[in-house]
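User: Show me sequence and structure for the first protein, then do the same for the second.

Assistant: Starting with the first protein.
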Amino acid sequence: MGYIDRSYTLSDRYKREDGRVFLTGIQALTRLPMMQRQLDRHNGLNTAGLISGYRGSPLGAYDQEIWRSQKALKQHDIDFEPGINEDLGATILWGAQLIDHYREDATKDGVF
C-alpha cells in the first residue's frame, strides 16, 4: 500500500515545489510557468512570466484557471494580461520580448 499524505491540500497543486501533486491537464498548464520561474531562479536568472490570450481561444478553460490562480502566479512574478482578440494577445507577448531594446532600466533578465 502507498503512503497517503494527509497534509496534502488542493492548493498544494501550485504551492508544492517538490514531491507529488495531483493536477488536471489545465492545472498542469497553469503550473508550468511557475515551474519555469523556479527553474530560472535555480539557474540564477531573474525572469518574469507573462501569459496572454483571448477568451475565444480553443483552450478556453485555461484562462478560467489562470483567473482563479492569479495569487499563486503573482507569487512567482507571472502576470496574466487577457487580450481582447488574437492580435492584441500576440502583440502583448511580442512586446514583452523586446523589453531590452526599448528599456535600458529593465529589472528582469527576460520574460518567458
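Switching to the second protein now.
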Amino acid sequence: MDSITQAVLGAAVGEAVAGRQAGRKAALWGAVLGTLPDLDVFVAPFVSEAQALAIHRSATHSLFFSFVAAPLVGFLIARLHRKAGISWQRWSVLAFFAFVTHLAIDAFTTYGTQVFWPFSDYPVSIGSIFIIDPLYTVPLAIGLAIALWLPRTPRRRRIANYAGLAVSTLYLLVTFVNKQVAESAFKDALARADIPAERLLTTPMPLNSILWSGMALHEDTLYVGLYSLFDGNRSIAFERIPRHSDLLMIYQGDPVLERLFWFSRGYYTVSEQEGALIFHDVRFGRADLWLGGDGLYAFSFELLPEPGNPERLQDFRQQYVSFEIDRSLLERYKRRLLGNEGPQSQEIYPAVLH
C-alpha cells in the first residue's frame, strides 16, 4: 500500500496497543514503525535492478523479521522513553503489530509480498485491493484523528480508534468478496468465449474495488477484459495480447530473465524498440486503463545484454514513464466503473513505448 496508508495504519495500531499508557507517543511510533519495512527500497542504489526487485518486500516484509526485530525495537524505544514507565514488552508488542499489519495489508495488493522469507521467496498476493484506496484509508484516518484529539484516558478515545480499525478491516474483507464475484464473472465469460485459460488473475482497477480487470493466460496469449460489479450482465469483451515469448528464447534460463518471470508470474508481453527488448508486466495495467488504445504499460523493463555477449543478460532497466490521463479518459473510466459503458471491442493492441 501507499506510504500514507501504512503510516496511518501503524499509528492506529500503536494507539490501540499503547495509547492509554503512552499517549500520542504510541501513535507516533506506530506510524514510524508502520512505514519502516519499506526502507528496503534504499538498497536499490547499491545492487543491480534484478537484485533490488528480489529484495523489495522480502526480508523486512516477513513474519521472521516481525518476530526478530520487534523485541529489539521495543527495547530501544523503552530505553529512549524511560520516564514514560512503559515496559519494553509493551513497546515490543506495538512494534510487532506495526510490522505484521504492514506486511498483511501489502499481501492484499497485487505486487507480491515474501511473507515467509527466508524459508520461501513465494510472493503472497491476494490481489483484492489497489495500492491506493481511499475507502480503506479514510475511515482509519478519521478514527485515529478523533482518538488523538481526545484526552488520553477516556473510553471514547479507544472506541473511536477501534471503530476506524474495524471499518477499514471490514472494507478489506468486502474487497475480497468483490474479488470472488468478479472472478466468477470472468470465468463464465471465458467459458462462453471458448477461451481455455490455464490461469486467471483478477485485480482491482485504480482507487476502487468495483471495477476489475481480468487477465487470462492461454498458451502464449493473454486475454484482458474489464468487469464492473454494476454491469447489467456478465458479457465481457477480451483484448487479445500476444506475449511474444519467442523473442526471449535467446535468453532462456538466464537468471535475470528468470527474475522477471518470477516477478510477473507469467502475465507479461514483450516488445521491441530500436533493437532493444522491453518486458512489460501486464498486471499493473496501462495508461489507457484498458479502455482501448495503445497506452503505455505501468511496469516495463528494458533487457540489457552483457557487453560483448549478446546472448546473456547483465541486468534490466525499469522504464519510468509519465502517464497523461486527460479528463475524457477519466470520464470514460467513471462510466465504465458505474456500468454505464459496455465492454470494449475485441482488438489487438501491441505494447508500444513512445
